[in-house]
Amino acid sequence: MQELESERLISVNWNNEESKPFPAQICIMGRNAKGLLAGISMALVQQDVNIDSLEVSSTVDGRSQMNFTVEVRDAAHLYKTIDKLRAVENVTEVRRGTSIADD
Questions:
Q1: How far apart are the first and last CA of the chain?
Q2: Residue 95's beta-bridge partner residues?
Q3: Largest interatomic CA distance in the chain
Q4: Contact 20, 41 (CB under 8 A)
Q5: Is residue 66 within a helix (H) or strand (E), and if so which, with residue range?
Q6: Using an 8 Å Cβ cutoff, are 71 and 25 in contact?
């Protein structure tokens, strides 16, 4: 399209608002091991995700459940982040939402 009549094309912005991040909840279950939270934090930084809040609880069988509220740009950004979190060492499960029910 630009090759056709480039002098007639103008840049258009449909609204003057910047896209604002929206809050999303992610629940992570993992083995309670040294470096687990650091690995998760690093994955979030690499995905350009801000942590708004975090709630952590431990189970008697050596697992930790972490409920994050994070800021993401859109659903695609959220699901790409979830995929990256699943690859973190000692993470056993990642879901959108606030809890992982015991199976």
A1: 54
A2: 27
A3: 68
A4: no
A5: strand 63-72
A6: no
As given in the structure block, the two tokens for residue 83 are 């995929």
pLDDT reported for residue 2: 47
User: Which tens digit of pLDDT belongs to each residue from 5-52?
Assistant: 555 666 555 565 567 889 999 999 999 999 999 999 999 999 999 999
d(CA 94, CA 67) in angstroms, rounded, equals 10
Residue 48 in tokens: 């350009």
State both tokens at 16.
Answer: 């003057």
Assign 40 to helix, strand or coil.
Answer: helix
Q: Which residues contact 49 (CB under 8 A, 6 or more apart)?
A: 70, 71, 72, 77, 81
